[in-house]
Amino acid sequence: MGFFLIIETSTTICSISLTYKKLLLKNINFYQMNLLQIDIFIRKLLKICNIDFIFLDAIAFNNGPGSYTSIKIGLATARGISYAMNIPIIYFNMNSSIKNIHNNLRPMILIKDKCFQYNIFYIKNNKFVNINKYQLLRLIKKKLINLFLLYTRYDLYLELADIITFNNINYFIINAKNFINLVYFKYKKNLFFKEKLYIKYNYIQSKAGIAQ
């Protein structure tokens, strides 16, 4: 066996993936505004793949950084399924996960729009700052950015995609299917969260400009 449900709720474009070991069976994307219906999307995902909850071997979720409320919902969903089905929880931190996926590219940056600001999180040195669009374009012009991890709504994604494609910058949107290999690795190594009562999660506190 080896069916894993992976939940990604840290961005404005959320996603869930069902995998068998390292094989992606189905991925569903949905907007953050529909996050309270995540249970409906999970049931839909399982129905499409003709799999019931009892066949799940583990459930995994991204614990940040990202939206405070969204990560809490992802955490609560993972805990609920884990408790009901008596299966382990696998959770991963975005910083170390992205390094494993794209360890040959520096610097690595998360972008999230908030009141026309671009909140930049440098994974390499763990530094978080707020900059506006003009400052962002200046960084691109100076060739100080070579990879974007996009935390954004779809319309802003299209705007940024044109800019970074023109400048030959690598980019992708955070998605649950990005972490299939990592989840499988943690499952094989039995790297589960032992205590089900509490999981510490990371989030971006935009007003204070601090990444926790």
DSSP strand count: 12
User: How would you spell out the order of helices and strands?
Assistant: EEEHEHEHEEEHEHEHEE
Structural class: alpha/beta
* Inertia-based shape: elongated
Cα-to-Cα separation, first versus last residue: 36 Å
Write the layout of secondary structure elements.
Blueprint (H helix, E strand, L loop, with lengths): L2 E6 L4 E8 L2 E9 L6 H11 L7 E7 L5 H18 L3 E4 L1 H8 L7 E6 L2 E6 L4 E5 L1 H9 L5 E5 L2 H13 L3 E4 L6 H9 L15 E2 L4 E2 L1
Parallel strand pairs: 1-4, 4-5, 6-9, 9-10
Antiparallel strand pairs: 1-2, 2-3, 6-7, 7-8, 11-12
Q: Can you describe this structure in just a few lines?
A:
32% of the residues lie in helices and 30% in strands.
Q: What report would you give on this structure?
A:
By secondary structure, this protein is an alpha/beta fold. The protein is built from six helices and twelve strands. It has helices spanning 38-48, 68-85, 94-101, 133-141, 154-166, 180-188; strands spanning 3-8, 13-20, 23-31, 56-62, 89-92, 109-114, 117-122, 127-131, 147-151, 170-173, 204-205, 210-211. The protein has a five-stranded mixed beta sheet with strand order 3-2-1-4-5, with helices on both faces. A five-stranded mixed beta sheet has the order 8-7-6-9-10. Helix 2 (68-85) links the parallel strand 4 and strand 5. The longest helix is centred in the middle third of the chain and has 18 residues, at 68-85.
